[in-house]
Design a protein that fits this description.
heterotrimer; A mainly alpha (327); B alpha/beta (249); C mainly alpha (267); A: 327 residues; mainly alpha; Arp2/3 complex 21 kDa subunit ARPC3; 2 domains; two-stranded antiparallel ribbon; 12 helices; 2 strands; 75% helix; C: 267 residues
Chain lengths: 327, 249, 267
C-alpha cells in the first residue's frame, strides 16, 4: 500500500526521507566497497524485471481474485539486502514519478515501508535462517518472510498516518483494517516469491549464490536495532501527538502545552483503547479549530471557488498565448 | 619487418565450470585487414570463441594473441580497445540514456578530454550515418538504427579489429542491405560470426567452419560453401546465392 | 500498487512528453525539482481542515501545464487513477469527525467533510505537481540533477538502467503474457505464472550478464561517466524565486479569503 503525499505531514515526510536516504547512502557505500562491477547492470535489469512482474497478475486459486509479485523479498534473495533496498527504492521512485503511486515527499515513507522491512528485517531474520535446505522449507520461509515484511510495512503506514494527523482514522480500527488486508497480500507475495525462487534454483542454481558473509550477519543486528528505535519513536509520536504538525508548529511558535492538557489527552486515549470503536470524535488543538473556522467561512469558500476559476483561466490563457506565439 | 597477424589463436581450449568442453584446440590466424567469417551450427563453439577475443573468457589451455601480443591480465584493457565487439542484440550494447551517451561511453572510459570524446562520438555516428539520432533514447530506434548505433559505439573506440556476432539478425532486407554496404566500407580486420551465409559470401572471402569446438574447414568462402556434403554434415546448407554464381558447383 | 499492461504504454507516453521542447522543458532540472519540493511542503503544511486557502495553489499546476504544452486531459486522468489510497483513508473522516465546524448558508459542515475535501485537494495538487515535474523534465535529466546534488551514483546509475531496460523487459513480458492468452487462458494460474515469470527472470539475469560484458568491452571500470551537465542560468533562478514567493504568500495568508472579501465588499 503506497503512502500518499496528501496523507502525511511535512515533518513525517522529511523524517522518513532522511531515514531512507541515510539507508540508501549506506547501501550504496556497501556496494561500492564490495567492488563487484557486475552489480550495477544486474540491479538495474532486475529492477526492470520486478517493475514488469508487478504488471503481470496471476489468479489466486479458489478466490477469483488476482495477485502479483511485490518484489522486495525476491530482490533480497537474489541480490542481498543492500542492493535489494536500492533497487526497491528505484522501483518505487519510478512508480511515484510515472504513476503518482505514492508521492514525492511520501517516497521516503514508501521506500522505508516496502524496501527496508523486506530487505533488512524479513530477509536476514526470517528467510535466511529458515530457508536452509530446500523444497518445502524454502516455501515456508518465503511465505513467512513475505508476510512479516508486509505486516511491518502496513503497520508503519498506520504509524506514519497517525503521526501526520491528516486522516481522522483512529489507531485501533486502522490497524485492524490494514493488517488483515496485508496478511492476504503477504501470502500471495510469499507464494509468488517461493514459486520463482523454486524455479530459478532448479533452472539456474548459480544465480542464487549465497551473498551472506559473517559481516552481514553482524550488520543485521544494527538494522534490527535501528528498526526498533524508529518504531518506538514513531509509536510514541503517533500516540502522544495525534496531530504531529500542529504540535510541531505550536512548539515552534512557543505555545507550550500545559501538563493538564497532556494528561487529559492521555486519559482520552486510554478511554478509546478500552472501548472498541467508540463514537469517536477527533481531537484537535484550539489552533487548528480557529484556522478551520476562518478557512471555511462563506467568504473563504466563495473566494476559493473564485481563485480556482482564476487559476484555470490563467492556465487556459497561457496555453492560448503559447499557441499563438508558436504560429 | 612483417606485421604480426591481427588475431592469432594457438591451440585454444576452453571448458566451462560445469565441465562442458566448448573449444578443443582451435588454431587460426587472421591477417591485418582480412575479412573472415566463422560459421557453424548451434553449439559449435562460436560464441565461446568470440568471448575469448577480448579477454572476457580466458583460455584454459593455449593462447590468444591480438596484434602479436598474448592476452593476459595485464594486457586485457589494451586488447579491449583494439578489439571492438558488436553484440548480437543491440539492446545489450545500448544501455545508456541516449545514442550520444552510448557512443561516448567507451571514449570516456579511456580518459579522453571532453572535446576529444565529443569529436570521436560525432565522427563515429557520422560514419554509420546516424548523427541525426544523437539525442534519441535507444528504445526509440528501429532495429536497423540500433544496429548501426551499436557499431558506432565500437567505432568510437578506434579499434583495429571488428568482431561481429550475427550482425544481420532482426534486420529487414533493406536494413540488411544497408548494413552490408556499411561493413564493406570499413577497412578494419573483420571477424563475422553468422548464420546468414549469403551475407558472408558478400563480405568475407575466407570462412572458417566450426563444429564441436574444433575447426572442420578453413578456406575460401565460395569453395567451402559450395561443398554441399561438408555443409550438410555440419548443420548448414549451401546458400542460394551460390546456386546462381556456380550453378554446377 | 496493481498495474495493468496499459501502464507499459503510459510510461512510454510520459517519456515522450518529457522529450518535447518548451521554455519549461528547457529549465534546469534542479530548479524545477526544488520548486516542486517547496510547493509540496507548502501544500502539506496546511492545517487539516484547510480548504479555501489551497485553491490559489492550483495556479501552479495549471500554469505549468499550459506553459509546458502538456496535455491536461491526460494528466488529469493520471491524477484520477492514482487516487484510491487517499480516498480509502480520507473517506473515513466524514464518519469519524462529525462536529460541525462551519456553515454554508444554513447548512452545517462537519470537520470530517472539510478534512476529506482538504485531503482530496492536497492529493490533486501534490500528484499533479509530481507528474508535471516528470513530464517537463524527463527521468534522465532528473537523475542527472539528483546526481549533481549528491545522490549516490550507484543508485542513480542503476535507476537509469532500470528505466532503460523496462522498455526491453516490459515488452518481453507483455509478449509472453500475450502468447499465453493466445492459447486461450484468460488468467494465469499459479503454475503457468511461475514458469512464465521464472523464464522472464532467467532471461533478465542473462541479459544483465550480457550488458556487463558489453560494458567491460568498452572499458567499464566500475564508474559510469556521462559528459553533459545542466548549468543553471538566471531564468532558472527566477523560476524558483518567483514561484516560491507565491507559495509562501499563499501559505501565509489565505488568498482565497482575501479575494472573497474584496469581491463581497465590491458587491
Amino acid at each position: 500500500m503506497h503512502m500518499a503525499d496528501a496523507l502525511i505531514s511535512p515533518a513525517v515526510g522529511a523524517t522518513l526521507w532522511a531515514a531512507s536516504a541515510g539507508i540508501a547512502a549506506c547501501c550504496a557505500r556497501k556496494i561500492r566497497q564490495s567492488g563487484d562491477d557486475r552489480m550495477v547492470p544486474m540491479m538495474g535489469v532486475l529492477g526492470a524485471f520486478v517493475f514488469t512482474a508487478m504488471m503481470i497478475n496471476f489468479s489466486i486459486p479458489g478466490t477469483g481474485s488476482s495477485g502479483h509479485l511485490g518484489g522486495g523479498l525476491l530482490l533480497a534473495i537474489l541480490l542481498g539486502p543492500h542492493a535489494a533496498f536500492l533497487v526497491m527504492a528505484s522501483v518505487l521512485t519510478i512508480q511515484a514519478l510515472f504513476f503518482a503511486d505514492g508521492g514525492l515527499l511520501a517516497l521516503g515513507c514508501n521506500v522505508f515501508n516496502l524496501g527496508f522491512f523486506p530487505a533488512f528485517i524479513a530477509y536476514p531474520w526470517i528467510y535466511r535462517p529458515l530457508a536452509r535446505g530446500d523444497g518445502s522449507r524454502a516455501w515456508m520461509a518465503s511465505m513467512l518472510a513475505a508476510v512479516a515484511g508486509l505486516q511491518l510495512g502496513a503497520f508503519a503506514v498506520v504509524l506514519e498516518t497517525k503521526a501526520s494527523g491528516i486522516s481522522a482514522l483512529p489507531f485501533g480500527p486502522f490497524v485492524l483494517l490494514m493488517q488483515p488486508i496485508h496478511l492476504a497480500i503477504g501470502l500471495v507475495e510469499g507464494i509468488a516469491t517461493a514459486a520463482l525462487v523454486g524455479f530459478v534454483s532448479e533452472a539456474r542454481p548459480e544465480a542464487l549464490a549465497p551473498v551472506s558473509t559473517s559481516h552481514e550477519r553482524r550488520s543485521r543486528w544494527y538494522w534490527l536495532v535501528a528498526a526498533l528505535l524508529m518504531g518506538g519513536l514513531f509509536s510514541w509520536f503517533a500516540s502522544e501527538r495525534p496531530d504531529g504538525l500542529e504540535w510541531a508548529l505550536a512548539k515552534v511558535s512557543g505555545q507550550s502545552q500545559t501538563p493538564s492538557d497532556g494528561m487529559h489527552r492521555e486519559a482520552a486515549r486510554l478511554q478509546q483503547k478500552t472501548a472498541f470503536l467508540p463514537g469517536y470524535a477527533f481531537q484537535t488543538t484550539e489552533a487548528s479549530r480557529s484556522g478551520a473556522n476562518a478557512g471555511a467561512s462563506v467568504s473563504g469558500i466563495a473566494g476559493g471557488l473564485f481563485t480556482f476559476s482564476a487559476a484555470t483561466l490563467i492556465g487556459v490563457g497561457l496555453r492560448r498565448a503559447r499557441r499563438n506565439g508558436a504560429k | 619487418m612483417t606485421t604480426p597477424p591481427s588475431i592469432e589463436l594457438r591451440d585454444l581450449c576452453f571448458a566451462y565450470p560445469d565441465g562442458t568442453r566448448a573449444l578443443r584446440g582451435v588454431s587460426l590466424s587472421v591477417a591485418q585487414g582480412e575479412s573472415v567469417a566463422i560459421v557453424g551450427g548451434n553449439g559449435a563453439g562460436k560464441s565461446t570463441l568470440v568471448q575469448h577475443l577480448n579477454g572476457y573468457l580466458m583460455a584454459t589451455q593455449g593462447e590468444v594473441r591480438v596484434g602479436g601480443k598474448p592476452i593476459a591480465r595485464e594486457t586485457v584493457a589494451q586488447v579491449r580497445r583494439a578489439v571492438g565487439l558488436v553484440f548480437q542484440d543491440p539492446d545489450d550494447q545500448l544501455f545508456m540514456a541516449s545514442v550520444f551517451d552510448d557512443v561516448a561511453f567507451g571514449p570516456l572510459n579511456f580518459g579522453l578530454s571532453p572535446e576529444a570524446v565529443e569529436k570521436r562520438a560525432t565522427a563515429a555516428l557520422e560514419r554509420v550515418g546516424m548523427l541525426h539520432l544523437r539525442e534519441r533514447p535507444p528504445h526509440k530506434l528501429s532495429a536497423g538504427e540500433k544496429r548501426a548505433v551499436a557499431i558506432a559505439t565500437v567505432l568510437a573506440m578506434s579499434p583495429e579489429v571488428l568482431v561481429m556476432d550475427e550482425p544481420s539478425s532482426n534486420l529487414d532486407p533493406c536494413g540488411r542491405r544497408r548494413l552490408i554496404h556499411l561493413l564493406r566500407s570499413f577497412d578494419h580486420t573483420k571477424l563475422i560470426v553468422s548464420h546468414d551465409l549469403e551475407l558472408v559470401v558478400e563480405l568475407c572471402p575466407r570462412s572458417i567452419l566450426l563444429d564441436g569446438g574444433v575447426i572442420v574447414a578453413d578456406g575460401p568462402t565460395v569453395e567451402l560453401f559450395s561443398n554441399e556434403a561438408l555443409m550438410l554434415a555440419h548443420g548448414l546448407e549451401r546458400p542460394h546465392i551460390l546456386r546462381h554464381l556456380h550453378p554446377h558447383g | 500498487m496493481s498495474m495493468g499492461p496499459g501502464n507499459y504504454i503510459e510510461v512510454g507516453r510520459m517519456d515522450e512528453l518529457s522529450r518535447m521542447d518548451s521554455p519549461l522543458h528547457r529549465l534546469d532540472a534542479r530548479a524545477k525539482g526544488l520548486t516542486t519540493l517547496i510547493f509540496l511542503i507548502a501544500v502539506m503544511s496546511f492545517g487539516r481542515y484547510e480548504v479555501s486557502a489551497l485553491m490559489p495553489l492550483f495556479v501552479y499546476p495549471f500554469a505549468l501545464t499550459a506553459w509546458g504544452n502538456l496535455p491536461a486531459g491526460f494528466l488529469l486522468r493520471k491524477v484520477a487513477l492514482a487516487a484510491p489510497f487517499a480516498l480509502f483513508v480520507g473517506i473515513f473522516n466524514p464518519f469519524l469527525d462529525r462536529e460541525t465546524l462551519s456553515w454554508i448558508g444554513s447548512h452545517p459542515v462537519s470537520g470530517g467533510w472539510l478534512s476529506f475535501a482538504s485531503i482530496l485537494l492536497r492529493f490533486a495538487l501534490t500528484v499533479s505537481a509530481g507528474l508535471i515535474l516528470l513530464a517537463c523534465t524527463g527521468i534522465h535529466r532528473l537523475c542527472a540533477g539528483a546526481a549533481q546534488l549528491g545522490l549516490p551514483r550507484v543508485f542513480v546509475v542503476q535507476l537509469l538502467f532500470l528505466y532503460r531496460y523496462f522498455f526491453v523487459i516490459g515488452e518481453e513480458g507483455l509478449r509472453m503474457v500475450r502468447s499465453v492468452e493466445m492459447r486461450g487462458s484468460r488468467s494465469l494460474g499459479l503454475r503457468t505464472y511461475g514458469s512464465l515469470i521464472g523464464h522472464l527472470l532467467l532471461r533478465s539475469i542473462d541479459r544483465a550478464q550480457r550488458i556487463y560484458r558489453a560494458m567491460i568491452s568498452r572499458g567499464f571500470d566500475g564508474e559510469v561517466r556521462v559528459l553533459r551537465a545542466d548549468a543553471p542560468g538566471w531564468k532558472d533562478a527566477a523560476f524558483v524565486a518567483g514561484w516560491s514567493a507565491f507559495f509562501i504568500a499563499a501559505r501565509v495568508c489565505n488568498l482565497s479569503e482575501l479575494v472573497g472579501n474584496v469581491v463581497f465588499n465590491i458587491l
